[in-house]
Amino acid sequence: QIFLDNIFEFCYLVEVNEKIILIKDNPDDDKILECAISAKCDYIISGDRHLIKLGSYKNIKILEPADFLFLIRK
């Protein structure tokens, strides 16, 4: 429970306002984009190949974890 409490300190729920149908190979990935748009994210950090293949969506950069770490360490 302590672990979850620590995670929830940095999380918040978003209400999805826009339905996206984009990733035909794995439609479940569209939910990630929907949440990122609703939360006004700058980045999606993921190892999912379908998302990584996009590179970006609506000004949200999609990066693998290693690439994001490289970016923030500059």
Automatic annotation (TrEMBL):
Record-annotated PIN domain positions: 22-50
PANTHER family: SSL7007 PROTEIN
InterPro entries given in the database record: PIN_dom, PIN_toxin-like
Name of the protein this chain belongs to: PIN domain-containing protein
